[in-house]
Amino acid sequence: MSEFLFTRIEAKRDEIVALTQALIQIPTLNPPGQFYRECCELVAERLAPRGFSTELVRAEGAPGDTDRYPRWNLVARREAARAGDCVHFNSHIDVVEVGHGWTRAPFGGALEGDRIYGRGACDMKGGLAASIIAVEAFLEEHPDHAGAIEISATADEETGGYGGVAHLAKAGYFDPARVQHVIIPEPLGKDRICLGHRGGWWAEIETHGEIAHGSMPFLGDCAIRHMGAVLDAFERDLFPAMAARHTDMPVIPDGARQSTMNINAIHGGQPEEEEGSTALPAHCVPDSCRITVDRRFLIEEGIEAVEAEMRGLLDGLKATRENFDYSLREINRVLPSMTDEGAPVVQTVRAAIADALGAEAAFVASPGSYDQKHIDRIGTLKNCIAYGPGVLELAHKPDEWVGVTDMLDSARVMGRTLERLLLPD
Ligand SMILES: [Zn+2]
């Protein structure tokens, strides 16, 4: 059966190119979160004639949702005559800012050789196109299949997914009674199965001082020097401690197999002047300095320990450093997620990779989080993976591209997965 399916998919090369280009040409930049509705409608109009019921769902009240920038999501479902499992493909349609350094039009979708260029090409409009082509080829080959197929196109993954998958999960769309298998076509590579991701904890730390005239700093208390002591303690104690902790999760790349932390931002004293300003600085001792930290933690650590470790370090400074005072505000937290290697969707996609590509699948986990967290934690659906075409390292970079052959290869795997799950013998 598979050979016929694979032949159908190979014949859709021009179609997968055109669909990927059309998706890239809708500049669904996030922030601000624009053109979601247009992108959802493009997918809905394509799937409706193939027997899908399509539902546009706005995440009203979600962060960022306004009348100017509404958070629209599409859920398309096709129910077969015979009972069976539901297989759901979830793709986020938002893309990150363009940034500098492009040599192609970021929303042009230029095809050069085997590559399609554009913001979102690999992360992850190429994955969305591959899943649609896989489903269409499967339906042509097996109109009498069992169960149901869903394709969702969702908002805001790049900013946490609260206006997208989290909203759908809260509304019951990922209830395990309704959906049994979820594949998220993020760009992990066509022969790799991503089982989950590390956790994340974002916090703002502020050190407090006392304002005074800059010519007499001894009359005040410099909050930036206190922050310097915090950064020193990070270098001396925290970074070495994190580097010594390793996870059993197959996180890629290797550097992310340990605990990590990025310091996103630092602000202290008077606000920066605009570039080119000729204004001179006022003479003040800063009474506040703030940093934002992005702490990625391992499934073995636990979020309470991560927070306690940070507070312990800061309380240690408070006990030993004169006048040291701080406040800590949590900005966001994401718990790690890990699907069991024996889960049905994992083993089915693994077998499909062997069938379609003759390759042994590698199991990986993502250094950063993606929408699996909401499907797992809010939706309580554990049978979920990320699997899709593209090179992860190209995500968010200038001249982002996706390979046409990679998309077709992963469409073969997705189509074969549908055959294994929705064709009861
Ligand atoms: Zn993505």
Automatic annotation (TrEMBL):
Residue span(s) of domain Peptidase M20 dimerisation: 196-315
Reported cofactor(s): Co(2+); Zn(2+)
InterPro entries linked: ArgE/DapE, ArgE/DapE_CS, Bact_exopeptidase_dim_dom, Peptidase_M20, Peptidase_M20_dimer, Peptidase_M20A
EC number: 3.5.1.18
Pathway entry: Amino-acid biosynthesis; L-lysine biosynthesis via DAP pathway; LL-2,6-diaminopimelate from (S)-tetrahydrodipicolinate (succinylase route): step 3/3
Residues that span the membrane, as ranges: none
Enzyme class: hydrolase
A biological-process GO annotation: lysine biosynthetic process via diaminopimelate
Catalyzed reaction equations: N-succinyl-(2S,6S)-2,6-diaminopimelate + H2O = (2S,6S)-2,6-diaminopimelate + succinate
Keywords annotated in UniProt: Cobalt, Hydrolase, Metal-binding, Zinc
UniProt-recorded Gene Ontology molecular function terms: metal ion binding; succinyl-diaminopimelate desuccinylase activity
Family stated for the protein in its record: Belongs to the peptidase M20A family.
UniProt name for this protein: Probable succinyl-diaminopimelate desuccinylase
